[in-house]
Design brief:
It is built from 2 helices and 20 strands. It is mainly β. It has 2 domains: 1-20 and 243-263; 22-236, Neuraminidase. The chain has a 4-stranded antiparallel beta sheet, with no helix packed on it. It has a 4-stranded antiparallel beta sheet with strand order 4-5-6-7, with no helix packed on it.
Length: 263
């Protein structure tokens, strides 16, 4: 009885460990620094400077398949960068040649980086090796943000100023209203938080909101700090992926079984 009970206890302890919390990242506009946002208080903590001096109203995107964060610097800077999430440092990939690329999102299902711009009002695919932009199709909605949700396999946009949530057709660039605004937002960005089943919206007026999954309610988390350009949520470990602590406990348990067997 000892060995099965010990193994059951080890497995139960491993499964009981909570998944590690994800991190909400943004770009502080005045310094172009990478920051984190406390999801309870809205407090902003600087990770480090990107080292890039120009760009406004840009966006962040995250490829969870490779652990790569991308940044479109926005107005005044047509560059696409990779961001080091430990130091904040940005590495230029290339220039899109597209002005006012305010929206950026990574489609993890098809491994495609999408951008959405006010200059030409169009949806683009963007090369992750050269930053070359290829037009998908026109879009007449004043763009404020772009986000991809893997759970619904949908590309979403947020209209600037108005704050409508829209779905974006990845084949044509056309938008369809998902949820009408419940309050205006000022040159904002949006991020999906799968761990809280909620949306995050930050805007130029220093506000940080959490929206319900259906976009029908919102909570003002903070209205202090500074304007934020771009926001992205880097979530917890994928379901079914053992955490290091879980693996350690399991290893200790198996070692105990081995020692017990030797006796």
């Amino acid at each position: 009885m000892f060995r099965p009970l010990l193994l059951s206890a080890v497995l139960a302890a491993a499964l009981a460990l909570p998944a590690h919390a994800g991190i909400l990242y943004a770009i502080a506009d005045s310094t172009n620094s990478l920051v984190t946002i406390d999801r309870t208080t809205g407090a902003v903590t600087v990770v480090g400077s990107t080292g890039v001096g120009t760009g406004d109203f840009g966006d962040l995107a995250y490829d969870s398949n490779t652990g790569t964060m991308y940044w479109s610097a926005g107005r005044g800077n047509n560059g696409i960068y990779r961001i080091n999430t430990t130091t904040g440092a940005a590495t230029l990939i290339g220039n899109t040649g597209v002005g006012d690329l305010f929206g950026l999102a990574f489609d993890t299902t098809n491994n495609i980086l999408f951008g959405r711009a006010n200059d030409g009002h169009a949806l683009y695919t963007i090369s992750t090796t050269t930053a070359a932009a290829t037009t998908v199709g026109p879009n007449s909605v004043f763009n404020g943000a772009l986000e991809y949700r893997a759970d619904t396999d949908t590309l979403y946009a947020l209209s600037a100023g108005g704050g409508d949530l829209l779905s974006v057709n990845r084949g044509t660039g056309a938008s369809t209203l998902v949820a009408a605004t419940i309050g205006g937002v000022n040159n904002s960005d949006i991020a999906w938080d799968a761990d809280l089943n909620a949306w995050w919206v930050v805007d130029w007026s220093r506000r940080i909101y959490r929206y319900s999954a259906d976009f029908s309610t919102r909570t003002l988390v903070s209205s202090a700090g500074e304007p934020l350009d771009g926001v992205v949520y880097v979530g917890s470990a994928p379901v079914g992926t053992p955490e290091p602590a879980s693996l350690a406990i399991l290893g200790i348990g198996l070692l105990g079984l081995r020692l017990a067997r030797r006796r």
